[in-house]
């Protein structure tokens, strides 16, 4: 009976590892596809750093983005880096 449990556990472990390996290969292929898309965007004149930021921002909900923007504005103002009302109006 113990041998049956051991064989079952071994089969389960093998199945889990194989599934993970398949997913890792898919992940690699998807990462390569994404890299190609960014390269094509760059070739078309788009800033890939900004595109990555846009993709990142779209993953978040609006409230989370607004809170981050408010904190960024606050920190920039504390460092004297925020635009003043005069420069914003210009």
- Total DSSP helices: 4
Shape: elongated
- Percentage of residues assigned to helices: over 70%
Distance between the termini: 82 Å
Measured by DSSP, the beta-strand proportion falls in under 5%
Largest sheet: none
How does the helix and strand content classify structurally?
A: mainly alpha
Structural features:
mainly alpha, 90 residues, 0% strand, 4 helices
Compile the SSE list and pairings:
Elements: H1 2-43, H2 48-58, H3 62-78, H4 85-89
Describe the model.
This protein has four helices and no strands. It has helices at 2-43, 48-58, 62-78, 85-89. The model has no long low-confidence stretch (mean pLDDT 91).
Summarize the structure.
83% of the residues lie in helices and 0% in strands.
